[in-house]
Write a structure and sequence with these properties.
This protein is 39% helix and 18% strand. With 283 residues, the chain is an alpha/beta fold. The protein has nine helices and nine strands. The protein has two domains: 171 residues, Rossmann fold (3-Layer(aba) Sandwich); 95 residues, Pantoate-beta-alanine ligase, C-terminal domain (Pantoate--beta-alanine Ligase, Chain: A,domain 2, 2-Layer Sandwich). The radius of gyration is 19 Å and the shape is globular. It binds pantoate. Pantoate (PAF) binds next to strand 2 and helix 6.
């Protein structure tokens, strides 16, 4: 049976309330479409935590900067719907921009602190767009549990903070990053890579793994970060926005010396050709 699709908040809420009245737990997986195995793993994880799973596909204009890829972002709703259905999703919420941001829309959600460094610097306004749309989506769907990929680790931490700060009654679950065999994190934007760039792209994850090995051997954080940046430059990456080791929860700066006792995460963002790639790993 084809996956049911709703386009209005009213229709979404009617279905979710019916499930809740029947005593069913509802899981939610927000996406921007162009789905790949990583997204489907989120749906499957949501399925293990709820009887019903709703996914949303909405390419959110407010989280793209003026010179970013909003227009070029791949869109294929029929394909997304087939994939979601095969992964065990029960309902697709695919609103229009007008449904999400009607005339007169005036509210922006800002999460201070954790949204400020890294992509907060490299993509001004990005996390305000994310926090605003995720607040709306969670209020619209009112799920019991929502699953987000660790691939967008800073986004995940911003959403965790937002949900705590605004007392939203939803459990946030982070799902491990799905990777290709050579380690490249799966991303809808990998579709922009040429075959040659696709080979080079795996260096991003390798450089992070090398940095982690250095740190586990007692090496200095500043030296490990600098070596990763040099490795990426040598591999042919263009602009390198950051390769940084940070506190795994609040993303505050660690270093410059060896790792202390705090759980750490290495995060990287770099441009290859016209594609901006991001990745992160636990240290
Ligand atoms: O991670 C994404 O795909 C988006 O940032 C999200 C969470 C769906 C908000 O638009």
């Amino acid at each position: 049976m084809p996956l049911p699709i709703v386009r209005t908040v009213a229709d979404l809420r009617a279905q979710v309330s019916a499930w809740k009245r029947a005593g069913e737990r509802v899981g939610f997986v927000p996406t921007m479409g162009a789905l790949h195995e990583g997204h489907l793993s989120l749906v499957r994880l949501a399925r293990t935590k709820a009887q019903r799973v709703v996914a949303s596909v909405f390419v959110n204009p407010t989280q793209f900067g003026p010179n970013e890829d909003f227009d070029a972002y791949p869109r294929d709703e029929a394909r997304d719907a087939r994939l979601l259905e095969s992964a065990g999703c029960d309902l697709l919420f695919a609103p229009t921009v007008g449904e999400m941001y009607p005339r007169g829309f005036s509210t922006t959600v800002t999460v201070a602190g954790v949204s400020e460094p890294l992509d907060g610097q490299a993509r001004p306004g990005h996390f305000q767009g994310v926090a605003t749309v995720v607040s709306k989506l969670l209020n619209q769907a009112q799920p019991d549990v929502a699953v987000f990929g660790e691939k967008d680790y800073q986004q995940l931490q911003v959403i965790r903070r937002l949900v705590r700060d605004l007392d939203m009654p939803v459990e946030i679950v982070g799902a491990p990053t799905a990777r290709a065999e050579d380690g490249l994190a799966l991303s809808s934007r990998n579709a922009y890579l040429t075959p040659e760039e696709r080979q080079t792209a795996a260096r991003l994850n390798q450089a992070m793994r090398e940095a982690i090995a250095t740190l586990r051997d007692g090496g200095r954080i500043d030296a490990a970060e600098a070596a990763a940046v040099e490795a990426l430059k040598a591999a042919g990456f263009g602009r390198i926005d950051y390769v940084e080791v940070r506190d795994a929860e609040d993303l505050s700066r660690l270093g410059p010396g060896p790792l202390g006792g705090r759980p750490a995460r290495i995060l990287a963002a770099a441009v290859l050709g016209r594609t901006r790639l991001i990745d992160n790993m636990a240290v």
